[in-house]
Every structure is written in structure tokens, then in C-alpha cells.
Write a structure and sequence with these properties.
Layout: E1 6-12, E2 28-35, H1 40-47, E3 51-55, H2 60-71, E4 79-83, H3 88-96, E5 101-104, H4 108-118, E6 132-137, H5 145-159, E7 164-168, H6 176-181, H7 192-195, H8 202-208, E8 210-211, E9 218-220, H9 234-247, E10 250-254, H10 261-269, E11 272-277, H11 281-296, E12 304-309, H12 317-324, E13 328-332, H13 336-345, H14 349-352, H15 357-369, H16 378-384
Parallel strand pairs: 1-2, 1-3, 3-4, 4-5, 6-10, 6-11, 7-9, 7-10, 11-12, 12-13
Antiparallel strand pairs: 8-9
This protein binds adenosine-5'-triphosphate and magnesium ion.
Residues 145-146, 170 line the site of magnesium ion.
Length: 390
Amino acid sequence: MNEDRTHVLIVHQDPAAEEGAYDDLPGVVVLAEVMGYERAVEEADYQSPDVVLVVAAGDVEATRRLVEALAGEPHSLPVVVVSPTYQPSTVTRYLAAGARNVVPAGDAGALALALTGASRPLKSRRPSRRGRIFTVYSGKGGVGKTTLAANLAAALSVVTTGKVAVVDLDLSFGDVHFQMCGTDLKARTTIHDLVSLPQLEPDQVERAMISAHRCPVRILSAVGDPEKTEDVGAREVREVLQALKSHYDYVVVDTPSNFDDRTLEALEMAGVVLLVAAPDVPTVAKTSISLASMQKLGYSENKVRLVLNRADTGVGARRVEEALAYRVWAQIPSDGRVVLRAVNEGVPFVLTAPRSRAARAVTAMALQLAHPADVRKPARRLRLNLGGAR
Ligand SMILES: Nc1ncnc2c1ncn2[C@@H]1O[C@H](COP(=O)(O)OP(=O)(O)OP(=O)(O)O)[C@@H](O)[C@H]1O
Ligand SMILES: [Mg+2]
């Protein structure tokens, strides 16, 4: 990243706000745009921007509260507000809530100056971030959750410099370890080894993780014994994910298809939920139920990303979007030969066949989900893709 530019997180509230409207401000790099105030603080914690730009909409009190939350303890972030109504009473309220500056809408020059002026001094920029959880879920079995979780984790380890972990919450039947370590793994530690401990120390968590083949991903594997899965409850899931979040930059969680307390905990703690669907009628129907549940939980479209696996089979992405009234965020093509071969080798296809269409789709997802500060230069990525072209 270019260190002498100001890295800005933009927060909108108005769904009609034009994405990319602030992309060309001099001296400014837009890290991400968040729609909806409710996710702004979490996103700011994750992105660790130099400045947060809050685009005020009609609700002055909601904007004031957001400014207070971002600028106050414990986040203490520099905040600049763009306000369509530039009345002294409104400006004063934002400044009293901790905004560094309030700029009238439409004045790009003043805004660029305000953002670069409000930026934290270089040496105090970007304190250590907390990791981000990506939970892969579907209400339907066999749609490709584990395939996506394993390949996304591997792709993140290739395209970023971040530390990557995968957690297998399909406690009885999970097979992430097969997909990432092959079948020659004799004994393995599991999440069950952690839940009996009185306190989760970092080195204990690390000792319970197993290493993936051919990429630096660490795996917390499933219990594998249906009689023991009851010992892992929602509280244990929360504690384990919290511990992993403080040691890893990216934690990918694979889940079973049931919506139990443990899965719910992993969904709640996720920065992003990857809701996997396939373009067939029964899967779309179940996806509709899952989406409704997540909307009831208050999850925004920014949190729940719909991934259409085997997108080139069945009814097509447009029809799925119409049926669900929800945008398909990413599509993975069907590629039985590449996927099966990778599964049998126990190495994700993003490594064994990086140029395949499926691998390119998952790698593009990893790049979108990665923090911009972590993304490796393309040449370095190629060298890490030890499998070579296919
Ligand atoms: N894009 C794809 N192209 C071809 N085959 C695929 C693709 N995605 C998944 N598969 C295959 O579909 C099957 C189911 O995939 P996977 O095990 O990832 O699904 P799942 O949702 O995790 O299933 P479960 O609910 O049983 O845990 C596997 O045989 C896998 O290899
Ligand atoms: Mg699975």
C-alpha cells in the first residue's frame, strides 16, 4: 500500500448512494465502502482506516450516534462527515460527537483536504487488526460448502500475507482435513481437544491445529465422533473462534447444514457469511429460508454474500436472483474433473489447478474478501502456486 496516502473507509446509510463516488479524491485511497451504519464499527475495526468518512443521510441523530461510536473509546478513529444539510446546528452536533471535520456535500476539494488533514500521523496508523471470520453456510447438504471453505482458505493463503485458519464445525462428519491434508493423516487433533481445557491459551490452540498440505493454512478439524460432539456447545464455539480471531488474520468456518446454536454462533461472529446455493429448485427454496432467517437476525447484504456454486448448470444466476430477490455475489462454475481430482489428492484445486475456471472464481472471491493491506503482488502469488498451470 502507498503509505503516504490517506486510507479511508466510507460509510453510507442511503441505499441510493452512488458507489465509487469518492474514488478519485487526490491523496486518498478508498479501502472499502460500507452500506448501513450498523456494520460500520466492526468494519472500521477490521479495516483500520486512517480516516472514516461518514456520508450523512436524512437522520441526523443516527449519524451523530455513529460518529460518537467511531470517534469515542475504544475505537478513537478520526471521522469526517459529509453532510447534505450544512446548517450550523447540525454541524455542531457532529463536531460535538467527535467528528474532526464536517464538509458540505459536493465539494470534492474541501473533502480531500479534510480527509488528509484528519488522518492519523503515519507512525500511529493501522494498529494490529483483529482477524476476520468468514462462515460458509447452506441450509442444503452437498452444495459445496466444504469445497468452498477449503479452497477459499487456500486461496487466501496464496493471495495475501495473512495467517489463515479453517475451522470444521461439521463436528460429526466434517471432512475439511481430507480436502486439505489427504487421507494419509493418521492421528489428528480436533476441536474436542480444546473444549475440556479450563482456559484457552494461544499455544494450546496452536497445538490443536493441523497443517494443510502445500499451503500455510492451519486446520482445526472436526470431532469425527458423533458421541463426543455434544461436548462442543455454542459457548465453546464462541471461545475457540474468539481465540483464533486474535491469532489469525482470516478464519474460514465450514458448517453443517443444520441451523443449530453452534452454527448460529459462527454466523453471528462472522464478518461475512458466504451463503452457498446451487441453481436447482430445491436448493433455491432452502436458500430462501436461510436468507429469511438471516434477514430476521438483522444481517445486511454486506454481511451475507450469496455464492452460486455450479453456476453454469441448472436455472442460471439471473433466475436465482429473481427467485430470491437477492444479488448473487459470486459464481463458481461446475468442474467435476478438477474438483474430484483435487479432493482425491487432498489438495485444494486453487493449488492443483490454479488456472481452472473454478480456481479463478474462488481466487477472485479471496481477493475481494482480503484486506487490501495484506494482498500480495501477483508475481509472488504465482510463485506460491506450486502446482503450476493446468
Ligand atoms: N464447483 C463444483 N464442481 C464440481 N463438483 C463440485 C463443485 N463443488 C462441489 N462439488 C462436489 O460436490 C460434492 C459436495 O461438495 P461438498 O462436500 O463441498 O458439499 P457440502 O455442502 O460441504 O456437503 P455436506 O453438506 O455433506 O457437508 C463433492 O463431491 C464435491 O467434490
Ligand atoms: Mg461439508
